[in-house]
Structure formats: structure tokens, C-alpha cells
Amino acid sequence: MRRQIENELVRWKDQPNRLPLLLRGARQVGKSYLVDKFGQTYFQSLTTINFEFQPELKGCFESLDPNKIVPALELLTNTTIAPGETLLFLDEIQECPEAILALRYFKERMPNLHIIGAGSLLEFALHDQKFSFPVGRVQFIFLKPLSFTEFLDALGETKLLQALSQVSLTEPFLAPVHEHLISLFRRYLLVGGMPAAVNAYLLQNQSFVAAQRVHQALLQAYQSDFGKYATKVQYKHLQRFFEKAPGVVGSHFKFVGIDPDVRSRDLKVALQQLNWAGLVHSVCQTKSSGIPLSAQSDDTKFKLLFLDVGLMQTAGKIDAKSIWEDDILQIRSGALAEQAVGQELIASQDPYETPHLYFWKRDQKNSTAEVDYLIQNGPDIVPIEVKAGKTGHLKSLARFMEEKHPPLGLKISAAPLGLEKSLLSLPLYLIEQIPRLIQETKKIKSAPPIKT
Predict the structure, then answer these.
(1) Cα separation, 450 vs 266, whole angstroms
(2) Which of 97, 104, 156, 438 can pair with 137 through a Cys bridge, CB separation 3.0 to 4.6 Å?
(3) CA-to-CA distance for 239 and 259, rounded, in angstroms?
């Protein structure tokens, strides 16, 4: 299973002034598999230290000096760790905070050694107030669930992948190809992007039931993890929050919707912990009067996304038949589609940046409007509406464009690719191509009219 982030790892490997790398992401998105594959493919040797399975090796990092750490690891693992030849992988690194601190000294005293750290609960160590992180000496990179194009790659759809990267407004797909891609996107909604679920789906004759069984196991595993970072009181709130989260995706979040009998400040802790674990993602409201979008965001007003659309479908007990037969964008009042689009937008972001998404809402008496997502494209803010069917009203998007005057608005739906004035209509399967198609749109709009 190939991941697009592998290209970034290769670039990192070849950088002369590289920093030690910390790979971040939720549990079971494929971090360990990715690094193991990368190490075996691009290095003469790979040495993996898993602090969860090998706690006795934590003592090697007490001095923080790589010139003492590496010889000790070589003796205890019976391996040779050679700078320039070996990839040293520190897995479950959050179990050994001293190893995280030592990364800065690897940069300073052993810069030629390639070293990557990762961990399923790494975020909790990084947010620990008692922990002093080595700022400026470590580089972060984020791994997410498989995107739709990575899902297609796993299916072996190489020709479709090439076509997606080349389709244009002047030559959109013919109707049969478009309908086939929408059908494949429906499969993605059912299977999702968790590597184990995709693998089970492929190995068992493309069985949706096999993928769902993996989803159920993953959901149980995530709940089992709660005890690793929560007190007994917090555990109850986490359990309740996690069970309710799939059902509130896409709606304006209110803590009372999770449990009206629990104080919001207690549920805020649970929300923060689920965000750190990567199981939910907060999409904050912003006034969007300028860039960056974060400058005018309000983290008290937000919507939630779940980690993965396949997990959401299974956890929320969404009828698989409806995904296969009904309008995708009307299932659960559009929540499933909003999850899928948000997940795709996050997947297409720069892997070196912390994932972030925003939405816009105008609250005025007798005049409310809401745009599902806002993204930044160069100096421009681009509003995105996720709309049901092949038509759908766009009153909120029109209101945003009247007030904020962006050069372009996007509608994501089941309709084919098209451009009408300043509205770019994108089918669900082309979200990853948004930057390229925006540039094509700008060229078309700026081109002089053809003389007849």
C-alpha cells in the first residue's frame, strides 16, 4: 500500500541539513508500517526501537548524548547503526520523553544519522506542560488516513489516477467515466481510509463486511486506549463523547448534545484529549476578512469531524445500502458528505503543517448564512459549499461572495466538473485537484476573448 507522504520522506532523506523527524498522526493510520517500508527500501539497514515493547532500552537515553546512546543501542539490539547507511526508528517514542529531548542533540552531534520518531499517543507528550520540547531542532510531518486517490491506488486504478491528475475544464470526463468515479467514491465512503480496513477489503474479495469488522475492532481499540491518558472520571466522559461524536459531525457543536447532565468544562477536557489522540478534528468558525484564516477564528464556535469516514459510517450505524443507492450528499442530512469532503481537504494539506479547517457563518436577525469550508489558495480565500444532488441551492455561498468578494467559489457535489462565471463545480472525486483546477480557472477567466 503506497502512501503519497513517502515522496516527502525521500526528500527528507536527501536533504543535507535535515532535522530529526517526528511522524505524527492517530493510532492505526499506518505510521509504523510506513517507516518500516521506507527504511527497508531506501537504507542499507533499519534499526527499530519500540519503547512499548522494549522498555529496558529507555535507560540508553538518560545521558541525551548520541555518542553514548548509539553504542548502547548497538550492544543491546545486536545491530550496527551507521550514519548515512542506517535509519534509526524510535517507535512509541512518547513512552520515553528523554528520547524526544535527545533528538536535538542528534541534530547537533550526529547530524548524518537519519532518525525518525513516532507514537500513537505522541501528542500527549508534546502537550505536557512539564515537557520542554526541543524547538527548532526537530521537524514534524503528519500522516492521515488514506485519501480517495490513495484508495484508488490501492485498488490498482492506475489509469484513473493519471486521468484525475490531467482532467481539465476544457476536457471534462465523459458521463460514463464520471459515474464510475462517483461509484468508486461510494466504495470509499464505506471502506474509509484506515489502512487495515482497506487491506481487509482487498484481501477478502472487496468485502465491505470485512472492512466493517476492522472498523469495529479499531473503535474498540481506541476506547481501550482511554485508560492510558484519562483518569477514572475522565474515562466516563471520553467514552460518552466518543460514542456521540459520529452523530454530531457537521453540526454546530454544543456540549449539551453530548451529555446534558455533565458540566461543559469536564467535556472540554474530553474534547481536547480526543483532538490530541487524533480521533476528532475541530473545524473552527472564522470571520474570514483576511488571511491567515486562523487570525480571525473563534475556537469556541466549531463543528466536529471524525477521524475517518469509514469509521464514522460504522460507528454511526449508517445503512450501507443507503450509501450505495441514495444521494450521497443527503445521507444523514449531508453529514456523511461533509465528513468525506473535510477529510479529503485535510488529506490534501501540506503534511508539514498542523491540519486545520475553517467555516464561515453569518449570524444576523432574519439573515443567516453558512459556508461549509474555507481554504486558502495563495493570497485568496476560497469558500466551499457541499451540496446535495447535482443542483442544490447556493444562497450562503452567494452571500459570502457578495460580502467578501473572493475571486472564486467552489461547489462540491455529484455533478460533473464545470465552470459558470465565478463558480467552479467540482465532483467529489476531484477534491485533491482543487489547487490545480483553481489555477486553470484563473487562466480561463484572464484569457482574452476569442475573436470571431
Answers:
(1) 63
(2) 104
(3) 11
